[in-house]
Amino acid sequence: MRERYKEGSARSADNILSVIDKAKKNDEAILVFLHRSVDGDCIGSASGICSIIRSFGVDSYVAIPEQLPENMEFMGIDGLFFHPDANTHLAEEFTISRTLAGRKIGAAVSCDISDSSRMGSCGEIFDSIDTKIIIDHHESVKDRSDLHWIDPEASSASEMVFYIAQQIAEITGKELKDLLDTSAAKAVLAGIVTDTGRFTFSNTRPETLETAGLLIELGGDISKVCYNLFDRKTKEKFLLSAWARSETRFYCDGKFALTVVPAEQFARFGAGPDGVDDVVSAMRDIDGVELAIVLRELENGEIRCNVRSQEYFDCSKFAEGFGGGGHVRASGFTVRNTGLDELAGEVVKRVQDIL
Ligand SMILES: [Mn+2]
Question: Would you state the pLDDT for residue 312?
Fold first, then answer.
């Protein structure tokens, strides 16, 4: 492991081992949290942490605020998810007694997110738990504590979880393959693949590739992961994506590309909100384009915005201006109670002031 990850991952490993110890003594469960609009990295890192905790005989579940997207079902982690709004045995038990599988919740571990306002219906549960461990690589974090490990330079929360697993293996003498079983290795690898754009983004470092190699040894199937996360698509998504690309408008002498997808287009093509996931990075790859933005209107009237830049535009700062966040080259935000045209106009205006 590279020097720069040692301190944070060792501290985080200690924190996790101590909540595992406490949970064992008090017969408690540990809940793992992630952000809404789930992606491969939050699912991957949360699954990795759950696998580590379960390997010590402690009950652990991932609190997920929405349905797992179809292209992530392959991550094969059945029985791991706890959906407080879903009509399941666990959800019902939790609503009545605030226990899971008969156990009180002893601690929360949050992966790829530090802010409960982005956890959807799970945020309230997260806020109600006293001990909170955070593992995140997003810039926008307030109130740091010893229980947080935040490294904006890490490729993904999943890569951070792998280093925590290595530290725990070293401290406890357990084997890595017992901490991260085959399905967890697959999920953690999928997380790294997602946030590095299959190892093509500038956050891909030598250690990221070394980590991916070790995860393949643990059973992560790189071709299956890439196919499911990036290449596989329904014909409805294919056609909607083609429509969204053909609607692209250019501003700022071709440096800014914008496309706007109204809710009726999702309905017309019969594709879900993830039907245009591949559009924003394809737009960013157009010659001369520094900034690409996709606005999608969801059925509930919310507008989700994805922002990607090539070299110098600060996407994180731009998204913060609309109440969102993310990374320098990739960020996003969600807006309610605004018309699509009105928001598009505001986005163009603000971009023109910067670019
Ligand atoms: Mn991430």
Answer: 97
